[in-house]
Write a structure and sequence with these properties.
Blueprint: H1 3-6, H2 8-19, E1 22-29, H3 40-44, H4 51-60, H5 64-73, H6 76-93, E2 98-113, E3 119-136, H7 139-162
Antiparallel strand pairs: 1-2, 2-3
Length: 164
């Protein structure tokens, strides 16, 4: 029997995540990330990171904001060393084993609601999207975070669409 058939709760959670216009783009199991061969997408995470996402990660990992600022202002030579140091700091001080990248749809045409008025879906295309990074303590927690961030994104689009 397949893993998903044995874990229907995961299937339901993934379906809920997708209904909220969210996807998990990347998952890194931090204990296995080699500080001397950091995956390129971890190194690239700092390039498009906004203050909002930096603050969220700072809440999960104290000192992240200072690390991010140093990496964003470093030249390419120093950046490689700083990213290695960042991974080493995560290994030593981060309570979360996973670093996740969430992809949120931004080309939303409409937001769907159930009979109680709760957001339960969307109509849109993935032509435009944004990314957010988070730490998670499990894959289930990562999916839950993606559902929450997707829901908040759809609520914001619902507000924006109501003024259009």
């Amino acid at each position: 029997m397949s893993y998903l058939r044995q874990n229907i709760n995961i299937v339901n959670a993934v379906e809920s995540m997708q209904a909220m216009a969210a996807r998990i783009a990347d998952i890194h199991y931090l204990p296995t990330v080699d500080p001397y061969m950091v995956p390129s997408n971890i190194a690239e995470m700092f390039e498009g990171m906004n203050d909002y996402n930096i603050n969220l990660l700072e809440e999960q990992f104290s000192g992240f904001g200072k690390i991010a600022e140093g990496l964003m202002n470093a030249d390419s030579f120093d950046r490689t060393n700083l990213i290695s140091e960042f991974i080493s700091q995560l290994h030593q001080n981060c309570q979360y084993p996973f670093l996740i990248k969430i992809k949120l749809c931004q080309d939303i045409h409409s937001v769907k609601q159930n009979s109680q008025g709760k957001v339960n879906g969307y109509s849109g295309t993935w032509n435009s999207c944004s990314y957010e990074w988070f730490f998670a303590d499990s894959i289930e927690n990562a999916i839950k975070i993606a559902i929450d961030r997707g829901h908040k994104n759809l609520i914001q689009h619902q507000v924006d669409l109501s003024f259009s």
